[in-house]
Specification:
This protein has one domain. The protein is 10% helix and 41% strand. The protein is built from three helices and eleven strands, in the order E-E-E-E-E-E-H-E-E-E-E-E-H-H. It starts with a strand and ends with a helix.
């Protein structure tokens, strides 16, 4: 059975998510966050990376339905294609550095109860070698506004 490489990211106190090996292009340690007044709580900070301004998604804010966005010591730079098929970048707050794991279909599982709402912005879910249920995030849906309904439901 063939395996695929996935970056497992701790994006909250007890929440994990993943992206494919090719979607995570850089880790920024100690990023300099710039707050954007009036932006939604889950995306009220940006970082500058390689002269690109990146919106930073705070999944812990979304999952816990808090109004206090966190700034973390680590941010993942994610690559995706927009609706015009052009390459874009975004950021995700991380609780620590991600780990690369090779996964296959035998690890498929149900979404964890506390993240059921993430099904609309995830491709599927797998059980990691450490025993965590890990949704595979759909970067296009997260960063292009396709998921506007999902994000508005979280507030």
């Amino acid at each position: 059975m063939s395996k695929a490489a996935a970056w497992i990211m701790k994006v909250g106190e007890s929440f994990f998510a993943s992206v494919s090996q090719m979607e995570l292009v850089h880790i920024v340690n100690n990023p300099r966050y710039i707050e954007i007044p009036g932006a939604p709580d889950y995306c009220c900070n940006i970082i500058v990376w390689n002269d690109n301004i990146l919106p930073v998604i705070d999944f812990s804010c979304l999952i816990n339905s808090t109004t206090n966005s966190t700034t973390c010591d680590v941010a993942a730079v994610i690559i995706y294609r927009d609706s015009n098929n052009e390459i874009q970048y975004g950021g995700i707050n991380l609780a620590n550095s991600p780990e690369l794991e090779y996964v296959d279909n035998s690890q498929s599982c149900e979404f964890p109860a506390h993240t059921k709402a993430l099904q609309t912005i995830s491709l599927s879910c797998f059980k990691s070698k450490s025993g965590y249920e890990v949704p595979i995030l759909d970067m296009n849906k997260i960063f292009t506004g396709i998921s506007t309904e999902f994000f508005s439901m979280q507030r």
